[in-house]
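Supplementary Note 3. Input sequence used for the single-chain structure prediction.
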Amino acid sequence: MKRKSLLDSFAVMRWLQGEPGAQVVADLLVEAKDKHERLLLHEVNLAEVYYLTIRRAGEERARSVGAQLLRLPIEVVANTPEILWQAARLKAKHPISLADAFAAATAISLGATIVTGDPEFRSIADLIEIRWI
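The predicted structure, written as discrete structure tokens, is reproduced below.
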């Protein structure tokens, strides 16, 4: 069985900007390309990367980044009722953003390890496996 890793927007932004932790994401992309690893990204986190890029670099750059991400060996995960309700429960009970709740709910639902450096995930570290960058 292939290992599954799920990127949150924090990890993707680190990779895009060449910041600390970027190499972990780069290595996961290589493993996903070589079919040793499933690399996932929830659609809400993809939208978060898009809007953050608009804010930081403009809409033209965001379109370029969005197209780049969709060409990579990353599976974009759409909402399901299970993920939706799990995200709502996580958001209701823990001090995390809604986008982080969707990432965590997706990781829980699919049995994936979340890849992040976002300190908000500390509040739910007992619920999911985290690979800290």
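The beta strands are 3-7, 37-42, 75-77, 113-116, 130-132. The radius of gyration is 14 Å.
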